[in-house]
Write a structure and sequence with these properties.
Layout lengths: L13 H27 L1 H30 L1 H11 L10 H26 L3 H21 L6 H5 L3 H7 L38 H21 L11 H25 L5 H24 L20 H21 L14 H23 L1
Length: 367
């Protein structure tokens, strides 16, 4: 849906809100179904979560991050207290928001390597991880205003959304916020051309942006150099799962810092964003179809007896071309992820002015 079909401040109809609530509920129930399987049928749960849901997410962030922001199950439960009117609605300062974003990046970089020893093989552990994140999101939504503490703060997926969603094409209606209370400035959902390095006034924001833009491509590459283990056996094993991703992060971050002296930051951000998502699918697509470097690891369906090896090479090459075209070479769109609803304070001022005008007219009429 094009940004030209809606204007900032447009309100959703009751019917549209109902449709979005139904979709949000269905996606949330899907999450509950996966969680149930992770606990009671771990093989199925792990398959659904790591081999079905997660591989879809990066591509969705690239082409329609606003859609995910509207229907994310954790977002739905994080904002439930606010919708129910029981949130304390505390405001976060810009520095506090920056700290939360940095914590989110650190959490992301800490959690992902643990997949190799725990989460990829242990359904209950993955369920506990998701329930812990869900609990944190509800607490954040209960204490703080709208999306400030979780969706645009502590959520470990949020930094990836900002990295991959830099060349958005569709600006969807905001299915959560009926009015804009300026909970985050700038708002990632409704600010055009948002990127990890856009807000760099605070040191925490600078670090967060550099880690994601410069370091994440190398981190992904390093992550795929580590095999899965049946469990944690010692400190040496933990070092072995964290070392390759962190070395990769360091190398590409250093490269980004060097290149930033010669090229515009905007084009470098686009290149490194495309490199990160392309690297993910370069390894993930073959693994999903049984052609991974580790047989059976991360496989959705085994097509090795049906498809020739060269087809996987063609597929990953095509995906890389697509992401670089979409993010780097196509027209850079300054389109926000979602439509900004009317500002709450402006609406209140309009009501006050309107009320004052009505009183003035009534007083004049009485004379």
């Amino acid at each position: 849906m094009s940004n030209h079909n809606f204007k900032s401040g447009d309100q959703l109809s009751q019917r549209s809100i109902l449709v979005w609530r139904i979709v949000q509920t269905l996606v949330w129930l899907t999450g509950i179904f996966i969680l149930f399987n992770l606990i009671f049928y771990p093989t199925m749960g792990l398959h659904l979560f790591w081999n079905v849901l997660i591989p879809i997410a990066p591509a969705l962030f690239v082409v329609a991050v606003g859609l995910w922001r509207n229907v994310c199950p954790l977002s739905t439960i994080a904002l439930f207290p606010r919708h129910m009117g029981i949130s304390k609605r505390k405001k976060l300062t810009e520095a506090q928001t920056g700290k939360l974003s940095l914590i989110a990046v650190i959490a992301l970089l800490m959690i992902l390597p643990m997949r190799h020893v725990i989460f990829d093989e242990n359904g209950l552990a993955t369920a506990i991880l998701l329930m812990s994140l869900g609990s944190i999101s509800v607490i954040a939504g209960t204490l703080f205003e709208w999306k400030s503490a979780w969706c645009s703060g502590l959520c470990p997926v949020y930094p990836v959304e900002k990295l991959y969603g830099i060349n958005n094409r569709w600006s969807l209606p905001n299915a959560h916020c009926d009015k804009c209370y300026r909970c985050v400035t700038p708002c990632p959902d409704t600010t055009s051309g948002v990127s990890p390095l856009q807000s760099n006034k605070i040191i925490y924001q600078k670090i967060t942006g550099l880690l994601m833009v410069g370091g994440f491509p190398g981190f992904i590459w390093g992550w795929y150099q580590v095999p899965n283990y049946p469990g944690i056996t010692g400190i040496g094993q933990l070092i072995s799962i964290y070392m390759p991703p962190l070395i990769g992060l360091t190398v590409t971050l250093a490269l980004f810092l060097i290149l930033r002296s010669f090229f515009k930051e905007k084009i470098l951000t686009a290149i490194f964003s495309a490199a990160a998502v392309s690297c993910y699918y370069w390894f993930r697509l073959p693994a999903l179809l049984g052609f991974g470097t580790i047989p059976g690891n991360g496989m959705l369906i085994d097509l090795t007896g049906i498809l020739p090896v060269w087809s996987m090479e063609a597929a990953v090459f095509a995906s890389t071309l697509f992401f670089f075209w979409w993010i780097v070479f196509s027209k850079q769109n300054k389109i926000s992820w979602a439509i900004r609803p009317a500002y709450a304070d402006k609406e209140n001022r309009s009501q006050i002015i309107s009320g004052y005008q009505q009183k003035t007219k009534a007083m004049k009429a009485s004379f």
